[in-house]
Amino acid sequence: MACPTLDELLDLLQGELSEDKRGAVQRHVEAGCVRCHREMSRLRDLLEVVTNPCLLDPPEWLFRHAVVLFRQRLKDPSPSRISRILAFLVIDNFAESRLLGLRHIDPSSRQMLYRAGAYEIDLLIERSETTPGVDLLGQVLPCGEGIPPFGEAIVELWRDDQLVGTAKINPMGDFVLEGIPEGIYDVRLQREGDEIHITGLQALLQTEEGLP
Predict the structure, then answer these.
(1) Rounded to whole angstroms, how far apart are CA atoms 100 and 199?
(2) 17/30 Cα distance (integer angstroms)
(3) How many angstroms separate the CA atoms of 31 and 34, rounded?
(4) What's the burial of 143, exposed, middle or buried (CB within 10 Å: 0-12/13-18/19+)?
(5) pLDDT in tens, 46-96
(6) pTM of the predicted protein model
């Protein structure tokens, strides 16, 4: 079978997946699907965060995202034929694990998952081997069966309203932006007639206080 959706994996972990789907999803995961094992690991960390009785305040990344959504609603965009979808952050293993004080997270990498409409954007931020900055590796994936691939498109990286980098999304949905300075960016994934916007992406492997 194709990879189950994020919702199905979450339901499996919580014991809420219907019997008619549970067996197929379990067999798929147990067959060694690398992507699904990675997503299950992230979801376990997320569940550990949200069920933590010591959690009194929302994570910083969630607060930031709420502010972005609020500001977006206040804007009055001009009419356009382009469909713009604002992606929302589902999982950030770096921020959530720091919140819990978990020690198994590699400080040289950070994994994030965004969702925008019928697509998920899987991001990996890791130390660049050639420059002092970081590399941003991404993959755009359909959320379920019957949804076509996002297709070849352009990725734009923006900072302070300045375009600082571009990359191409290949037919498999993969893209790479290498050697970017650590910081907070906006990302636009553009194809004919559609744009996915990621606002306030924290391409950081250290706290903001530690940045120059």
Answers:
(1) 25
(2) 16
(3) 9
(4) middle
(5) 766 656 555 545 556 566 656 665 555 555 455 555 578 889 888 887 765
(6) 0.63
Count of positions (residues) in the chain: 212
DSSP at 103: S
Locate 59 and state its tokens. 């994570």
Where do we find the tokens 């050639």? 130
Predicted confidence (pLDDT) per residue in 110-163, tens digit: 999 999 888 999 999 999 988 889 999 999 998 877 888 888 899 999 998 899
Round to whole Å and give the CA distance between 2 and 107: 32
Q: What is the dihedral of CA 46, 48, 50, 52, to 10 degrees?
A: -160
Q: Please, are residues 91 and 46 in contact by the beta-carbon 8 Å criterion?
A: yes
For every residue of 129-145, DSSP letters joined together read SSSSSEEEEEEEEESST
162 is written with which tokens?
């300045």
β-bridge pairing 194-203 and 83-86: parallel
Task: To the nearest 10°, report the CA torsion of 198, 135, 121, 20.
Answer: -150
